[in-house]
Queue: 2 jobs
Job 1
Amino acid sequence: MSEVQKAQVQAQFGASAQDYVTSAGHAAGLDLERLIAWGRRRAASRVLDVATGGGHTALAFAGFTPVVIATDLTLPMLEAARGFIRGKGVVNVRFLESDVEALPFEDASFGVVTCRTAAHHFPAILTALKEVARVLKPGGSLLIQDILGHEDREMAAFILEVEKRRDPSHVRSFRQLEWTAFLRATGLTVIDEAILEKVRVWEDWTARSRMSGEARAALDRFILDAPARCREAFQFKLDGDRIVSFTDRMLLLRADKD
């Protein structure tokens, strides 16, 4: 991971680690339930949760997996996840500060790797996926969820600007065809997939990234001044000039190692 991007991620998430632990959207939802269902069927003895964030995916998988290892690039985030999971009385999750582009594990170490709502921060997605494929056992599964990139260039550019203004460490959201190609190039084959809508409550979504009042006002104005078709594409809900929420789509994939 480039040093500049790495520093951006650490700065962005280090300060707001506890907010991700308490985020209702990260703690539960149909998206997490789908990953859990896939994971239960795989019945791996060891699971790696990459970019664990608040630790919700690691916690969920710990309920039916003997050993879960949770990694994150940002130490304060990892510490917040550890406190959250240990506070639940769960002891079969281990925590390790690690960059997804250089995972400190031997080849074929895990039956399942999970990565939830994090890959849009990876500047070198193929490098990251190659590392995931390396540590997966043959026949093992990557269970991944991320924001689905828009097929229309104008809409993709609009939401990219929104995301980057809200979170400078955001790199890019990929389209489904791109994901399939990336996975195929790293020896992973898509076996199952789902697309789910996720409503983002504006106040919560912007507050979690610790935007300044000035930056938040500029983002609001950017959205209100955008063509109506851009707001409609992401179902922006307005109350006068106040933004209430918007809706994006999450892509969920199970990809198995050949």
Job 2
Amino acid sequence: MIGIILADDHSIVRDGLRMILESQNDMTVIGEARDGRDALAQAETLRPDVIVMDIAMPELNGIEATRMICERMPKVRIIILSMHHTHEHIYRAMRAGAHGYLLKESAGSEVTKAVRAVMQGRHYFGKGVDSPADTDLLSGNDSPQSPLERLSQREREVLQLVVEGKTSAEIAEALSLSPKSVETYRSRLMLKLGINNIPSLVKFALLQGITPAE
């Protein structure tokens, strides 16, 4: 039986995917997560075979969660769900360790195919997603350079929480840092990105799919 975790901040999406996946005799949903940090915790506890992971989730986005899970649990296969289909988004997902990439609009009809493909050790790219197989996206050669590549993992975590309106004290508590360290990370990431105010930082984060639009 293929054990699957669904990570999406919308319960209606999780419910729909659960119904489709559990209609298959060899698939079962063993956990659901509403944000990337929850997905990471559940993956460590439940040890799934596959995680279906939304990109734009609060607290910790799907790409950062994918990177952390793949580093700690390399046998877990991750399929990204996204509304974005640019080469940059696909590149970031694959570089983080994802095995598949589906657009949300077609995920319902393709998710079982994607799960079977990644369980067989293949990559799966859904309808409307340009497969990077014909480029060097997977190897990282001649790939589009994301501005986020300039940031460390910790800076990307702080970035997301800043644009979601968290105070330095709240971010410090969430990441087990001192408020002073949070301020340092915030100043450093804004300098690296060439952004000097919060509204511009929020706009950048939404464009990159780092945080949900709502």
